[in-house]
Design brief:
Blueprint (H helix, E strand, L loop, with lengths): L5 E2 L11 E4 L5 H13 L4 E8 L15 E7 L12 E4 L15 E4 L15 E4 L20 E4 L12 E7 L18 E7 L11 E4 L3 H18 L10 E6 L11
Parallel strand pairs: 2-3, 3-4, 4-5, 5-6, 6-7, 7-8, 8-9, 9-10
Antiparallel strand pairs: 1-2, 10-12, 11-12
Length: 259
């Protein structure tokens, strides 16, 4: 690690091992080697500057103590893939595959995110301030009482929650009166999708139905709304009512194809 690429950040000096990495000109492997070396050396917080599409940030930290990484720029695909127990904060937009097969921890995106957000995610949470692309929460799953949570402030594109097998997906629909996405929950066979704003039944995918909100749902939504507002410093009242609750019609939506 060179003096030019790793320097102290005044914002991190109050934390043991706080450091800054200048990512200009670094390929993704070199950058991720530097991040892992710093974490192994005891860094508890890192600030990455000038990030331009480097992939896999945060994917090689498993087995190490929790690390917070603030990312300035646009991280590349598979940010936080397979991550377990760390915290990534993107001060801007993110590309595709955020939280791919994530096992724990938290990813915050203070902008928008691309396609397949939270794909096959098992645990932990992802919060996105603005919109997301296609196939968010694709095949998201859960185990026992442990489930992942994805919270989206804006709206999403088609195939939201496709083949979803577990977890909780919340779309707040801020500044959106009616969602345009189609094929919502196609092939869904587990978990719950909450969408605030207008959607029609013709926008739902095969195997998905609208269910009644219960007190436990309203309590969950109150918690997630409060978390969103605290994370992104959003003012104003967001009510937990006005949400559509989508659940699977059954556990085997395509069973007739294999009978």
């Amino acid at each position: 690690m060179t003096a030019e690429s790793a320097v102290k950040d005044p914002a991190t000096e109050e934390l043991p091992g706080g450091m800054e990495i200048d990512c200009r000109g670094l390929d993704f492997k070199t950058l991720n080697d530097m991040i892992r070396d710093a974490a192994q050396g005891g860094a508890e917080r890192m600030v990455l500057r000038e990030v331009y599409g480097q992939r896999y940030i945060g994917t090689r930290l498993n087995g190490l103590p929790p690390v917070r990484i603030d990312i300035h720029g646009v991280p590349g695909n598979d940010l936080g893939a397979f991550m377990d127990g760390h915290r990534l904060i993107v001060h801007g937009n993110a590309q595709d595959g955020v939280g791919n097969t994530m096992h724990g921890g938290e990813i915050v995106v203070k902008g928008r995110a691309g396609d397949v957000l939270g794909m096959s995610m098992v645990a932990g949470s992802i919060l996105v301030r603005d919109d997301v692309g296609y196939r968010a929460a694709l095949h998201m799953k859960e185990y026992g009482k442990t489930y992942p949570t994805v919270l989206i402030g804006g709206t999403a594109q088609d195939f939201l929650g496709e083949y979803m097998a577990g977890g909780r997906l919340v779309v707040l629909g801020l500044d959106t009166e009616r969602h345009d996405m189609s094929f919502i929950g196609t092939g869904m066979h587990g978990g719950i999708i909450y969408i605030r704003g207008e959607i029609g039944r013709d926008q739902l995918g095969e195997g998905t139905r609208i269910s009644e909100l219960r007190p436990s749902d309203l309590k969950f939504l109150e918690t997630q709304i409060s978390r969103f507002k605290n994370t992104f410093d959003v003012a104003g009242r967001i009510r937990p009512r006005g949400f559509k609750k989508l659940v699977p019609k059954g556990k085997r939506p395509y069973s007739r194809l294999y009978a």
